[in-house]
């Protein structure tokens, strides 16, 4: 009996470390994320009842995920919530890569920006590159180019406004 109790305690300690991952697993599968903790508690209660009545599962972590999935399914059946439409599901997916049409648009905008940048005088182009690409301050740029910080600021603002004005018609389309 004591040996069984010690084994049950070890199982619950191991599963306590799994709690954050299990909560994320549940959260991704339910519509109302406020139900997450309730579902977790119910899954743990079912596991505890299983341990009282029989042998511990061979894979307690896998068993707990299966129980959590069953609790989620039971909850959805009780609420009789319709399944998400494919469009809703697609909208909820977090895609790190832009769609092909967005990639093409981004490439065209970048090409246009580079074209406009290359048409600027060398000093002005260098100011923009140092400021926007390398993150240098106006004072650092001024020291490097032998200009005043105010002159750097003016050239930068004028050049960016000019580029923006030339790109605006292409961006509105």
TrEMBL record:
Concerning CDD domains, the annotation shows: Sigma70_r4 (cd06171)
Keywords assigned by UniProt, alphabetized: DNA-binding, Sigma factor, Transcription, Transcription regulation
Q: Which InterPro entries match?
A: RNA_pol_sigma-70-like, RNA_pol_sigma-70_dom, RNA_pol_sigma70_r2, RNA_pol_sigma70_r4_t2, RNA_pol_sigma_r2, RNA_pol_sigma_r3/r4-like, WH-like_DNA-bd_sf
Domain RNA polymerase sigma-70 region residues, every copy = 18-80
Domain RNA polymerase sigma factor 70 region 4 type, first and last residues per copy: 114-163
The UniProt entry, under Pfam families, shows: Sigma70_r2, Sigma70_r4_2
Membership in a protein family: Belongs to the sigma-70 factor family. ECF subfamily.
What is this protein's record name? RNA polymerase sigma factor
> Could you tell me which species this protein originates from?
Microbulbifer halophilus
